[in-house]
Amino acid sequence: MFERPRSGERALLVHVFLPDDKDQEDLREFAELAASAGAEVLGSVTASRRAPDPRYFIGAGKAEEIRQRLVQAGGELVLFNHSLSPSQERNLERLFQCRVLDRTGLILDIFAQRARSFEGKLQVELAQLRHLSTRLVRGWTHLERQKGGIGLRGPGETQLETDRRLLGNRIKQLNRRLDKVQRQREQGRRARQRAEVPTVSLVGYTNAGKSTLFNRLTEAGVYAADQLFATLDPTLRRLELPDLGHVVLADTVGFVRHLPHDLVAAFRSTLEETRSADLLLHVVDASDEERQPRIGQVDQVLTEVGAEAVPQLLVYNKIDLLDEAPRLERDAEGRPWRVWVSAASGAGLELLREAVAERLRGRMSAGWLCLPPAAGRLRAELFAAGVVREERVDSRGCCWLRVLLPTADLARLCAAGTVDCELHAEPAGEFLASAAAAP
């Protein structure tokens, strides 16, 4: 048995190339993850193996080499760019006499540092406890300690059993709290759906510039930095679009390849913002040489959370690093497919707004609606809803309103049967007055 060493900041990175691993981790990205966690990277060690070693993941000789490098460089932490089993992690810690973290543990640590909201902290803690629950066995020197004293001697409850019970109770408590937060989020979604307010979610690989783009579009002031997982907590803001009115724009957590399953499960309620969205803005770092694999990895996470069927609009960001001009590209059906922008300089943002409005306009109905003089109440409701773009009054006293409203709202008008809800391409009849709609 052993006492687990305290974690440090001076880290040595380890990466093993495996022939059967078709999706090798990016060592450069792993170094950025370590830097985002606040580690001082002393160097990296690479190795090639046909299969992971059951005891150390790396071979015994390579493990001894790492131990010697740690002693020479004064390292306090070893980070593996792979998932380690609990026994491999314990064996390596016993050999190195320092803390060992795998890729999952490193990402969990970054999330713990970045979480700011109440919900985000609960989600991160839940993911950490689920990960920790698999690493309790022989993790401390006191695991076989039992209760003693007169009347308490006997088999008793081992410290390991106590820790497991406490972890289980805390996980149940966190799940109850998150269920309550999820119900509150669901109420907000239902309210937006009743109001027929379209929702647009920003998704993409971490550090693709989602938060910077979000701030440019909404002036939200969300924290943004050139680092992985700079922001975790989802933020909702209103976005005004040309000829469409306002929509809700949601900034979500960034993705990374092999995102830990515990995190995907813990952040499921947050990621449901993407599943219930009307449109996804898939932000891509246009300057990244690995941008195509990154797109596939984001699509894979979207499939895991059930958002693969939501329409997407690709946003190629950071064109200022490529000297590219902003432009809008369309698919074979003429719909906006890809927009090239720069969130840092603001280039191409008007094209992006127009593309989003055009993609959302498919769920909207536009035209002239004829209201009889007795439908004054309905006229007032339409103006209050902000769907009227222009008004004309004909010689019979009927109001002709040029409207743009959700198709579902138009269907409800038809179902009520109070007015003829047919939309006309042009108003008919002789007009006594013409007025622009109030803003």
Instruction: Indicate the overall shape.
Output: elongated
How large, in whole angstroms, is the Cα Rg? 28 Å
Number of strands: 16
Main β-sheet description: 7 strands, mixed
Description of the molecule:
This protein is of the alpha/beta class. The protein is built from 13 helices and 16 strands. α4 runs antiparallel to α5 (118-132). The radius of gyration is 28 Å and the shape is elongated.
Topology:
Elements: E1 10-17, H1 27-36, E2 40-48, H2 60-73, E3 77-80, H3 86-96, E4 99-101, H4 103-114, H5 118-132, H6 159-194, E5 199-204, H7 210-218, E6 235-241, E7 245-251, H8 261-266, H9 268-275, E8 279-285, H10 291-304, E9 312-317, E10 327-330, E11 336-340, H11 349-360, E12 364-371, H12 376-384, E13 388-394, E14 399-406, H13 407-416, E15 423-424, E16 431-436
Parallel strand pairs: 1-2, 1-3, 3-4, 5-7, 5-8, 8-9, 9-11
Antiparallel strand pairs: 6-7, 10-11, 12-14, 12-15, 13-14, 13-16
Helix pairs in contact: 1-4, 4-5, 5-6
Q: Keywords for this structure?
A:
single chain, 439 residues, 5-stranded antiparallel beta sheet, alpha/beta, 7-stranded mixed beta sheet, 13 helices
